[in-house]
Design goal:
This protein is an alpha/beta fold. The protein has a single domain, classed as putative 2-phosphosulfolactate phosphatase. The chain is 35% helix and 21% strand. It has 9 helices and 9 strands. It has a 9-stranded mixed β-sheet with strand order 1-7-2-6-8-9-3-5-4, with helices on both faces. Helix 6 packs antiparallel against helix 7. The longest helix is centred in the middle third of the chain and has 15 residues. It is globular, with a radius of gyration of 16 Å. It starts with a strand and ends in a 5-residue tail after the last strand. The relative contact order is 0.24.
Length: 230
């Protein structure tokens, strides 16, 4: 398998296979929400669109990054997600990095969204797909985010070998600028940040399914992909 690592701005519009990585925190939250029973996650291009999509159905929830904002139910914190009942619900998500990266490669033959939680399952899908080239979209810092690059490289290593040691990859993520920013946010009491967020983002291979994004009714929609699919 040939691997290409790119930021959002340099990502090809329609690669054969794209793995969009956002560890802290969009796709950790997405994986956790689907694992807790959410039905699907609809990606919005703007906050205004996210709130409009939420308003179409009173049962929907809306998630965004940054500080808590009116109309949104979660500020992208995996720890704070535990206080929400997401079972059977549709979530609308808008983030600066993760959802933007997925929308940038929406025309790919296969779009997978990943964090450490779904790394093993994502690698399993890639092995079964037999992809010759996989484009990893490192969404943070336009391709420079150490936590996203480490996760992408871990997934690639899992495709090539059955059980690579995740520790070096997780340590890189733990020491990343994004982890430091979240830790500083806890110290300063920023709303929407929880002391457990960083460690929850490093819970490698804890979710048994991959996450596949595909166009549905004019929107890019993320759903769990069964371990034996594709």
């Amino acid at each position: 398998m040939r691997t290409v690592f790119t930021g959002i701005s340099d990502a090809p519009a329609a690669p054969d296979v794209a793995v969009v990585v956002d560890v802290m925190r969009a796709f950790t939250v997405a994986a956790s929400a689907l694992h807790r029973g959410a039905e699907r996650i609809v990606f919005a291009r703007t906050r205004e669109e996210a709130l409009a999509l939420k308003a179409r159905d009173p049962g929907r929830l809306a998630f965004q990054d940054g500080a808590p904002a009116p109309g949104f139910d979660l500020a992208n914190s995996p720890a704070r997600l535990r206080s929400l009942d997401v079972r059977g619900r549709t979530i609308v998500q808008k983030t600066t990095a993760g959802t933007t990266g997925a929308l940038a490669v929406a025309d790919a033959g296969l779009v997978l969204c990943a964090s450490f939680l779904v790394a093993g399952a994502t690698a399993g899908v890639l092995r079964r797909a037999g992809a010759r080239t996989v484009t990893f979209v490192v969404t943070g810092e336009d391709g420079r985010a150490e936590e996203d690059r480490a996760c992408a490289e871990y997934i690639a290593a899992l495709v090539r070998a059955a059980d690579p040691d995740p520790s070096p990859y997780l340590e890189r993520a733990r020491r990343s600028a994004a982890a430091a920013e979240l830790t500083e946010g806890v110290r300063r009491g920023w709303p929407g940040v929880h002391p457990e967020d960083v460690e929850l983002c490093l819970d490698a291979d804890s979710v048994p399914f991959a996450m596949v994004a595909a166009p549905t009714d004019g929107h890019l929609v993320l759903r769990p992909l069964a371990p034996d699919a594709r």
